[in-house]
Amino acid sequence: MTKRIFTCALLILAMSSCAFGAPFKLGGTAPLTGGAAIYGTAARNGAAIAVEEINAKGGDIQFELRYEDDTHDAEKAVNAYNALKDWGMQLSLGSVTSKPCEATAAENFSDRIFALTPSASSAAVTEGKDNVFQMCFVDPNQGTASAQYIGEKGFAKKVAVIWKNDDVYSKGVYDTFIEAAPKYGLNIVSDTTFADGNDTDFSVQLTDAKDKGAELVFLPMYYQPASLILAQAQAMGYAPKWFGIDGMDGILTMEGFDKSLAEGVMLLTPFNADAKDELTVKFVAKYKEKHGEIPNQFAADGYDCVYAYYQALTQAKANADMSAEELCTKMIEQFTTMTFNGVTGENVKWSANGEVTKDPKGMVIKNGAYVGLD
Amino acid sequence: MTFLNFFISGISLGSIYAIIALGYTMVYGIAKMLNFAHGDVIMVGAYVCFYAVSRYNLNPFLGVIIAMFLCTVLGILVERFAYKPLRQAPSLAVLITAIGMSYFLQNTALLLWSSNPKVFPSIIGRGSFKLFDGNLSVSHITVLTISVCIVIMIVLSLFIGKTKLGKAMRACSEDKGAAQLMGINVNATISMTFAIGSGLAAIAGALLCSAYPTLMPTTGALPGIKAFTAAVFGGIGSIPGAFLGGLMLGVIEIFAKAYISSQLSDAVVFAVLIIVLLVKPAGLLGKSIQEKV
User: What pTM was estimated for this model as a whole?
Assistant: First the structure.
C-alpha cells in the first residue's frame, strides 16, 4: 500500500512538473535483449521513427517516448511497467510480446492507463479490459485469415498442417484454421503435431504430408522449428508450397540459415515492406536509412501505434496536461469509433473489446527477401 | 519402403540418443551419480564447434577437437568445484547439485550467446546415400553417428576392461573404500571419468547439431533427458546397453509417431519404458548387482 501511495505521489509529481505544452509521455516494455530481442528492438525502432516525424511537424501534439527492457519475461515486464509509471507515463504501448503483455495489460487496466500494444497477439491481452487495444491480429484470427487467403487465391486444395501441440499460439491458430478450411474448399489431408522434446525429427510428419499428396503445408509455428522442417523436406526431396504465419517472420535473419531453403515460403502478415503506397515507401526508406535493414511487421506495428495515438489525440483535442485517467476515457471513445490508415493496413477499426480488424497481406520469400504476393 | 524409411529415421534419431547416452552411462557406471549437466556440456561443445567453424572458418574436425578439449576442461572444472566437495554427501545432494549445474550452464550460455537460434553448419555436409533407386535414403550424418558410436563403444569397453586406469575405474565403481585401501586415487579416477565423459559430450554435441541444425542454449537439455531415458532403458551403467537403448528409443519414437499418433509419440515412448522396467528393472542389458560397466 505504501508503495502504491508512493508511486501515485511520484506520478502526480511527475505530471505536474511536465505540464504546459509538454509532450505526451508514451511508454512501453519490450524485449530489447535476449531471444525475442529481434521483435522488441524492431517495434521500438518503428515507434521512435513515428515520434520523430510527429515531433518534427511541431504541432500541438508532441511525444516523449520511453521503452524499458522486459527480456520477454512477464515478471520483468511488470517491473519495467512500474518504472514507466514512476516516470509519469500517460499513454502506454503495452508490451511487444504476448506473455509479458498479458501481465502489463492487467496493470494498465487497474491503473486506468490506456494501452495500445503493437504486437502482443494473444486473446488474453485484451480480454475483459476496456482500455487495452491491439494493433496486430489476435491469434485465432490468423488461422481463419490464412484459410481464407489460401482458398481464395487457389493455392491448393489438399493441405497438410504441422503444428506444435504444447504451444497456445500454434494451437490457437490451428483450431481456427481447421474450422475455417472446409468453408474455403480446403481439404486437410494430413494433420500432424510435434512438441517440446520431439521437435527435431520431422520425417514422419513430412512423409505423411507427401504420401497423402498435400500440395501445400501450413506451418502455424515460430521460425525455429520451421527452419528444421524446411531443411528436412529438402533433404527428402519434398517440395510443396509452404505457408506460414507471423511467427515465421525472422527466419531470414537467423544466423547461418541457408536462405535458399525458405525460397517460395509464403506467409500472412499485416505489413508488406514492398507495397507501393506512399506511407509504406516513406516508412521503409526512413527505416532503412536509420537501421540499415528492411523493417519487419513489428517495426511497422510500432510505427502505426504512434500514428494511431496521434490521430486519436488530435480528434479528441487532448493535451498533455490531462491525467492518464482522463486520457484513458478519451482514448477508449476514439479508438472504438475511429478509422485509421497506416502502413499495416487501411480502414483499420477496433471493436469495443480492443481487437483490430484489417486485411492481412500475403508475402512470399524471393531471393532471400520478402516480396508482396498481391 | 515407407516402413524402411521410418526405420532409418528412427535409427538416425536413436544414434544421436545413443551417443549422448554413452556419456551418461559411463559417468553413472563409475561415479554412481547422474550427471544431469551432461546435456548442457553437449550444448557448450556444440557452441564451441559452431564458433570455430563459422566465425573462425576452421576445419570442422579441428573444431570438434577444440570443442573436445574445452569440454574436457569444463568437465574437470565442474567436477572439481561442484561435485568433488560433495563426495561424502548423500546422493540426493549430488543429484540436486547436478540439476543446479545444468541450469547454471544453460543460463550462462544464454548470457554469453543469447537465445537467438543459430543454424549449425554440418560437419560433413547434408548429403545422403541413396539406395533402391533413391527410394531409400540414409544421410551421411547418420552413418557417421552410428560409426562414431560403435567406435566409442569399443574403445571405451577396451579402455575400461584392459587398461590399468580402467581397472582403477572398475574398482572405484565396485567399492570406493576398498579401492582407496588398495592405493587407488579415487578422486583422481572420478575426475578422469568426468573428463572423458565431457570429451564425449563435445562429439555428441557436434553430431547432434549436424543432424538437427538449430543451436540454442536449451539445445542439450531435452535430448539429454531423452538420452538419459535411453541409458536407463538399456540398463544404466552398461555401455552396450546405452547404445541399444538409444537406438530402440529412436525407433520406437518414430514408429509411434508414424503408426499411432504424432500427438501421442512421447506418451508411447515412456509407456514402453515403464513396461520394460517393470519386466526388467535393471534395463535391457543392465545387471542388477555389481560389476556395472
Answer: 0.76
